[in-house]
Queue: 4 jobs
Job 1
Amino acid sequence: MNGTALRIAVRTTNMLILAIETSGTAAETALLESGSPAAVSTSEPRQHARSLARDVDAALRIANRRPRDVDLVAVSIGPGSFTGLRVGVVFAKTWCYASGARLVAVDTLLAPAANSPESVHHVYSIADAQRGDVFVGEYRRNDRGEFVRSGEIEIVNAAEFAAARNAADFVTGPGLDRYAGLIDGRCRVAEPAQRKPSALVVAELARRSEKAGDFADLWTLEPFYLRKSAAEEKWDARHGESNG
């Protein structure tokens, strides 16, 4: 598989769901089908564009299914890696256009929040926003036990975010990989295995959206970047946004 790690996990769903998670340095895909194994693949770091189609093809072969059998495509839309999110969203939209599958957009920071222990009812989910900042989403369980975001995702200085935490708080998300040293000791933090927005959780969240009839428009869906890339900000500074 040229460095792609492939494993089998069992999940139950009522349809064939293809989930795509490309917000980090490595792409992950998952295929969930009722009563049968779900194929999960993880690519080598920074190989999203090269590995994504190959990984999905491998997953379908393992499940003995064809591309047109996919009923629902779930894609993690950000915040996260500019390039990774773009590759994942374009791939998902193209698949749905070609196959007629329905499309669901999943909040990237909701995925690790949803993976929190059952005892946790309020969580901050963070991702690295670069330049000493973190993307922060705040989530609370509703009366069905499902995490729902409170307010908007924000960009916060990592040190300021850490200083505002107390013993009652719970923090998760891939941003802990970089900033756990600032946060440890101030509040509870998720275990390393629970912090990433895995494709399996993206697929499970998509099932929730499907039941609610919450589908994305493949013509208008865009990655959720929240801020411009460093290259775009340098361009604006040099040429002026009004001229761009």
Job 2
Amino acid sequence: MRRFGLLLVLLILAPFAAAPANAQVVALGDSSTRGHFLPASQAWPAKLEALLRGRGIDASVANEGINGDTSEGMLARLDSAAPGGTRVVIFMCCGNDNKDERHLVGDHLGNIRTIVERLRARGIAVVYSAEKRDAEGTAAARNAGASWCGWSYQGVPPEDLERSPAGVHPTPEGHDLIAARMLPCIMRALARRG
């Protein structure tokens, strides 16, 4: 009976044992990733790292969000944002694409597809989360090989979203909810990449 219990524990933990020490995860996005004027420790990438470590996964989560960024900007900085050693990229996109005359993007769908394809060609798992209900962008990411992790603010109640002239952004409590929703997606991506 004791052997059965040990075997059961090993089977449950086996998918997560594939994540090596210091697995590198990159959160690529805009202000919704950066934390829109919050300290970095209150943004969801830092909270996700703490949740992963709480599960015994020694993973670093780099916050590569830039306020006001578009898919064009993310594509232009992709290689520096996801350096060698990156295993998983959480691609949270593209709330700023074509939202006003300062954020015009010529090939929104092509940028999404190219970002995912370039990362996948490097052997990097991509987890996609759309900032707005962009079914075409989501389809482009998924068709290029990204796994889907829901809408960015999915499950975040209105009281945990702040509205300002810069747009809608999560509060620190909203970032907690985003990190918790991302956790199983990233754990699965790290296990698959082992």
Job 3
Amino acid sequence: MKGNSERVPGKNLRPIAGRPLFEWVLEALIDARRVDHVFVDTDSEKIADEVTARFPDVGIHIRPVELHGDLVPMHDIVAHLASVLPGDAFLQTHATNPLLTSTTIDKAIEAYEADEEHDSLMAVTPRQTRFFWEDGRPVNHDPAVLLRTQDLPPLMEENSNIYIASKDFILKTGRRVGPKALLFPMSAEESQDIDEEIDFYVAECLLKRRHG
């Protein structure tokens, strides 16, 4: 969790549906049966203090100075965490995924552990709509045929909700997703990721509908 957010300022601590944003995903991780330890990686002492006050059993890792800033590649952060945190396999998610549930987290871990052909797991959202390249060429459909959108072959959108890989894989490749990643589909509702201001309002509406 970064202290600074360019597109939605202060989003990780911002209240959503009556609670700070980070609380929702941390609660899901803590409730997941297959997660052994939960750590928060942050560059903010304020975020660290807020997390500790609400979740005293959650570990805190303060990023080293060389990993501060908006331009640091996520691969560098993941590789650093794999080198300093305990565990044989890591699941990464973000505070910006407030609708992610413990049930889905457990299912993703089970899918990863049951499949020996893949080197990692990445959560995706299937999208069935007509996509075009910038030059107007169709991506996943034939404009001359115009199939119904529900009949189009789905494209898989990386949704930033779940990444799983072994410590050995991360340290060896410096990556969280490999060329043989297992794609783990999630519903569009649960996979909401807050990148823009409008995403915040959509997620809040969905949280209120879910929890009353």
Job 4
Amino acid sequence: MADIFHNFPVNASPEKVFEVISRSGGLDKWWTKSSEDNPRPGGIYTLSFGPPYVWKALVTKYVPGKEFELEMTDADSDWLGTRIGFVLDHKNSVTELRFYHTGWPRLNDHYKISSYCWAMYLRILKRFVEFGEEVEYENRLHV
């Protein structure tokens, strides 16, 4: 199995970062084209990236201001069963964000492309939280 990890600081409170990583209003600013949230353990999220990419995920960890994790339950075959998570630590007025996407079935081209895309999306997340910058969905991998 293969895993993806990205760690970086965000100049914002853990509560603000948590809101952006766990709620539709935040997710749609940096990752999804549109989404529906159900922010609680066992809740189901709908993550839309435009037709035909409308995926579902189960909330497996939900600790406000600290930890959020989704298990992909309806997605591309490489993503099925994978876990996408965020761990937040507040240190010296900065939130240290530890991101992971674990459980990939194989180290293939889709894994490599996704690792790159996650880095791009997480940069947009950071810029949105810190500066309020917004990037239209269609342009997110081109900035």
